[in-house]
Amino acid sequence: MTTDSTLRFGAQTDEVTSLLRIVNLVRTGEATTRPEIGKVTGLGRGVVSQRVDQAISIGFLGDGDFGASSGGRAPRTLRFRSEQGRIVVCALGAAHIRVGIAALDGDIIDHAHRAWDIAQGPGKTIDAVMALVDDMLKKHPKVPVWAVVVGLPGPVDFATGQPVAPPIMPGWNGFDVRTPFEEHFNAPVWVDNDSNLLALGERARRRDSLVDLIYCKIGSGVGAGLLSKGRIHRGANGAAGDIGHVRVSDSDAPCRCGKIGCLEAVAGGWALVRDAEQAVREGVATSLAGRARKGGLTLEEITLAAQAGDALAISLIQKSARVAGETISALVNMFNPGVIVIGGAIASAGEVFLAEVRQRVYELSLPLATRDLTITLSVNDEREPLRGGAELAREQLFDVTFPRWFAEGHPSPERMAIPA
């Protein structure tokens, strides 16, 4: 029998490995009765019973309803106790904060949103995020927080949880985002790029654990999340998917990052607002003129005007789509995804944007790479980054770090550290 000492130190014995696997089989629904667990694992009935009893005593599993009978006594199902912990997700954008809490099965329990300028810096922003989360948690029964995920609109070194030279986040470069959240919630924290969370949210929505997918987000800025066989590809330093700063040929538009001719400076939301305001100053007739003269024009208003038939808005959206499509086509040739999802505020433009992207991708990509390719708009659900954050937390808790903390019955920041 596995001893308490063995469990406490998470030694990778056969007994511990089988116990971990059984919990995850029930958690994912792959096997939910003792006989099913025996068939999948090859373990004997007595061993399965022993491991299940251990998992129940630690607190991961519980008895469920009776399953279908195959002729004898109906077996009792097992359930993963997803209610025993909470996942907190904080999705930050250039102009907003969105937070949510989820159960350990990924279901979003509650969420909240507020406008916020991320350029106010990390100190004020993190205080505002925590206040929003605390207010939300007060409305629900007190359950321990098991994980926190923070999504940021810029490059992130996933190993350290630190932003790396984010163009629209002054004061954030190298900032230790992880520690304040660890200290506040006494839970492990993961920090990632917002496009990666959206890609994981799409994986969860499609229920395809092995999908090859690119999530291209075009809002104020431009970025992409890359899924290879269902796993996020972050690159050596977390910069994979940062397509917003790919050079656009024949463009001399200055970018917020300090370079010239970046995709974001031509196709991003702030670039479209800039071009719309310039067109109004030059006397172009448009329904956007009033808002543009007041300096309060947004990408959302441009997309709505395009849908309503405004000629200037349509031309701006189509220009963005053509240029974005060229960059996406390069990704298609290199990455060969099965699905491309277009999200962010630009998705509100619908087919005005999507048709142009499709045309450029199919025109510029190799036939083999586009043979089975689907290009579609996101569902545009404000909870998508929250679902993606919950997916990231569950993946890290139960697929990556589970052996380090499961004997304690709950994770902690200390247990996330890899032993020397």
Describe the structure.
The longest helix is centred in the last third of the chain and has 25 residues. The protein starts with a helix and ends with a helix. The chain has a five-stranded mixed β-sheet, sandwiched between helices. Strands 12-11-10-13-14 form a five-stranded mixed β-sheet. A two-stranded antiparallel sheet has the order 1-2. It has 17 helices and 14 strands. Strand 3 and strand 4 form a beta hairpin. The chain is of the alpha/beta class and 420 residues long. Helices cover 43% and strands 18% of the residues.
Termini separation:
27 Å
Question: How large is the count of helical segments?
Answer: 17
Spatial order of the strands in the main sheet?
A: 5-4-3-6-9
Query: Which whole number gives the mean pLDDT?
Result: 91
Largest sheet: 5 strands, mixed
The shape is globular
Per DSSP E runs of 2 or more residues, the count of β-strands stands at: 14
Structural class: alpha/beta
How much of the sequence lies in strands comes to 15-25%
Helix proportion range: 40-55%
Rg calculated over all Cα atoms: 24 Å
Question: How is the quaternary structure best described?
Answer: single chain
